[in-house]
Amino acid sequence: MNAAGRAVTAWRAAALALLTCSLASAAPSAVVEQVVWSEDGRRVNLTVQLTDLGAPAEVQFSVSGAPQSRAQARGTAVTGGAQRVTAELDVPAERRWKPLEITMSGLPDLEGQVTLTPPAGNLYVLAVGVATFGKGFANLSATVNDAQSLSATLERQQGRLYRKVTSYLLTEERATREQVERAMADIAARATPDDTVVALLSSHGEVFGGTYYTMLYRGAADDLERTALPQQVIQAFYTSVKGRTLLLIDTCTAGAALLQTKGAQDATQVLVQGINDSVSRASAPGSKAFINEYRAFITAAGPNQQSLESASLGHGYFTLAVLEALGNQFQPDSAIQANIDPNKPRSEIQTLQLLSYVVTRVRNLSADETDARRRQVPQFDPVSVPFPIVQFAVNVPVDLIAGGARASRPAQPDESSGVFMSPQGDDRASGARAQPVRTLTQALALGFSRVTLLPGLHDLPAEVILNRPVTLDGAASGATLRCTSRDVGGLNIQADVTLINVSLRGCPTALTVTAGRLTMRGGEVRGAIRAARVTRASADFQGVQFAENGAGRYTALALLDAAATLDGAVFRDNDYDAIRVEGTSTLTVQGSTFDHNARSATRGAHIWVNGTGRVTLTGSAFSGAHYSVASVNPGTPITRCAITDRTPGHTYQITGC
Question: What 8-state DSSP symbol labels residue 415?
C-alpha cells in the first residue's frame, strides 16, 4: 500500500474511532410513547422507547411503589441502541384512575421515573346513518358506512384519550325517531363536564313549514312526526349536554324539493340559526342551563348547496374528510390550505384542526362540480375553546437518574442542577439541608411544600400536576419554565399554589386551575397557546404580565364559574381577547393595563363577558382594541371607576362608580 493509501486508511480509522466514541458517549434516554388503560382502571399497557443504553439490561417495573411481579412485559431484555419495551402493569386498587408513579429498574446504573396521568372522562358516540327513505326521497348509498366508520374509529380511543367509549350506532331500521331521541336523552343524562360527546347525523335534510328535519328510516314528508327528527330536538340535545360536544351534520341541505319550491327557506340557514338561537337562550341571564364552553358544530354544506356522496369512495365527502382527520391521514394539499402540516407528528387531533381541514377538504373534493349547488363548503361554529377528539400517541420523557434511586445525593445545592429545595422557609437563608434535583417533577415528587428555582430556564417536557399546596419561588432574579412540547405542558393546579417571580413560556396551556387557589406574584406568561384557564376555582394575579399569547385564536385568561383578581397586571399583544368571563364568574381588576389585545379579531375586546357574574374595573387603562369591555348579556353588572379608555367601543349596562 502506498503512502496515500495508508493516509486514507488512517483517516478512516480515526473517523471510525471518533464516531464510535461519539456514539458511546451519547446520553441514554427513555420516552413513554403509548399508554392504554383498561376499562376498569386495573391495568395499564405502556410502550417505552429506550435509546443509547451503555450495557445490556433486564427492565423491571414498579407502580407507585408496588413491584410488578405479575407484569406481562415484552422485549424487556435490552441489548443497547434503540429498543421498545412494552409492559402490562397491574394498578394498585387505591391508585385506579389516579396518576401513577412508574419506576423502571434494572437499567445499567440508571433508574427511570415517570408519572402517568389517566384519562379524565368518557366518550359517548351517537352515529346515525340512514339509507332507505319513503316517498319523495331517493335512497342513499354511503350513509350507513359513514356512521359505522365513525363509530369504529372513535371506539378505538377507549383507554387512550377516554376511560370508556360508549357508542350508540343507529342505522336503517334502528334509526327511528323513538330510538334516536332515547339515545340523545341517555347521553345527555350520563355525560358529565369531564366527558366528550360526538354525534353524527348522516341522511337527508329538509325544511318543512319553517322547521329543519333530519329524515330517519323510511322518512317521508307526509309522516314527519314518526319518520323525521325536527331541529328542536337536535338543538335541545346540543345545549343540554354537559360534556365537550361536537355535532356533525352530513345531510342534503338543498334537495330537489327545496330547489323547486320558490321562496323556500334554505335548510342550512334554518338549522344553523336554530342552533345559535338555542345556545343564546341557554346562556341568557336566568337560564338554568349548564353553560358549556366546550362545543362546536359543523354542517356538510353551505346555503343552497347539496351534500354529496361517492360510491367509489364509499363515503359522503363530508364524513370522509372527518374520518381522514380523525385517522391522522390528512391529504397534503387540503391540509396545507388549512394551515396544517400533513407531515408533522402529532399526538392528538383537536376540534379546530378537524373543522379547518374538513372545510378545505370538502371544498376541494367538490371543486370540479359544474353545478354551483353541488360545490360544498361546510359551515361551522366553534362556540368555545377547542378540545381534543382523538389521541394517537403520548410523548412523556422518563426521568433517568444516574446511579438509581439508591444513589446518595450531595448535601448542598448544585448550581448546575437547576432546582433545589429545603423543608422550610427561604431555602438559602433557613440553614436547612437542601437537596438538589434535576427537574421540577423530581422536586415536587419529594413532597416538600416549597421549591426554589435557580435563575434561568427550566424545561417542562410534559404537564406538571400540582395537587397539593406548594410554593414555587423564582427568588429575586426570577425563573422561567419553558414548555418544550407544543402538544402537552404547563402547570395543572388542583390545590392552593403560589408562584413567586416564576414565568411560563411557549406552553400549550400554561396555567390550568380547576381546584383551590392560584396566587401568582410577579413573572409573566408569554407565547402560550392558552395562557390561563380557571374553572370553578379562584386566582389572584399580582404584577403579572400576559403577552403574545393565543396562537391567533385563543383567549389569554379564560374564567368559567370562577373568581379572579388582577392587581397591577399587564395584558399586551395577545392575539385574541385578553380575558373571557363565562358563567357566574367574578372578575376584579385594579391598576392594570390592557394594550393591543384581540389582534386577530377585527371587532375584538380586551374583556369579553358572556355570563351572569360580575366585573369590577378600577384605575385601569384600555387601548388598542375595538372594545374595552363587551358583554353579550345586558344584565351582567359591570362597574368601571377611574378608567382611561382609548378604545372606540365599550359595552352594555355600565353602572358607573
Answer: G
How far, in Å, CA of 461 to CA of 490, rounded? 9
What is the DSSP secondary-structure string of 184-229? HHHHHHH--TT-EEEEEEEEEEEEETTEEEEE-TTB-GGGHHHHEE
pLDDT band per the 50, 70, 90 thresholds, residue 414 = very low
> How far out from the chain centre does Cα 590 lie?
31
Which residues, 6 or more positions from 504, have their beta carbon under 8 angstroms from its beta carbon? 480, 481, 482, 483, 490, 491, 510, 511, 523, 524, 525, 526, 528
pLDDT band at 376 (very low <50, low <70, confident <90, very high): confident
pLDDT band at 509 (very low <50, low <70, confident <90, very high): very high
Q: What is the mean pLDDT of residues 214-237?
A: 92
Helices (H) and strands (E) in the chain, counts: 11, 52
- What are the chain's domains? 29-116 (2.60.40.10), 123-391 (3.40.50.1460), 410-645 (2.160.20)
Q: What is the DSSP string of 306-346?
A: PPPEETTTTEEHHHHHHHHHHTT---HHHHHHTT--TTS--
Strands 627-631 and 605-611 turn out to be: parallel
Mean pLDDT over 148-159 rounds to 96
**Nearest alpha carbon to residue 165 among 394, 393, 389, 392:** 389
Location of C-alpha cell 397586571: 569
Separation CA 384–CA 554 (nearest Å)? 9
How many angstroms separate the CA atoms of 472 and 495, rounded?
Answer: 13
CA 449 from centroid of its chain's CA atoms: 29
Residue 558 is placed in which grid cell? 379564560
pLDDT digits (tens, 9 = 90+) for 76-85: 666 666 788 8
**Mean pLDDT estimate for the chain:** 81
Check if the beta carbon of residue 323 is closer than 8 Å to that of residue 363.
no
Spatial separation of the C-alpha atoms in residues 16 and 553, rounded to whole Å? 51
Alpha carbon distance 537, 517 (integer Å)? 6
pLDDT digits (tens, 9 = 90+) for 596-635: 888 776 677 899 888 788 889 988 888 888 888 887 666 6
> Measured between alpha carbons, how far is residue 522 from residues 467, 474, 539, 543 in Å?
22, 9, 14, 5
Which helix or strand (DSSP H or E) is residue 104 part of? Answer: strand 100-107
Q: Pull the grid cell for residue 238.
A: 346540543
pLDDT at 367: 85
Count CA within 13 A, CB hemisphere, residue 408.
3
The phi, psi pair for 303, rounded to 5°, reads: -55, 135
pLDDT at 432: 40
HEC letters along 433-454: CCEEECCHHHHHHCCCCEEEEC
Please state the rounded mean pLDDT for residues 121-138. Answer: 94
Q: Give CA–CA dist 446/379, Å, rounded.
A: 51
Weakest mean pLDDT among 25-34, 139-148, 170-179, 636-645: 636-645
> 373 or 269, which is more confident?
269
Residue 497 host element (H or E)? strand 497-500
Q: Which residue has the cell 392575539?
A: 575
Spatial separation of the C-alpha atoms in residues 634 and 647, rounded to whole Å: 20
The single residue listed with the C-alpha cell 395577545 is 574
Residue 50: strand, helix, or coil: strand
Apex CA 388: angle with CA 385 and CA 390, to 5°?
A: 160
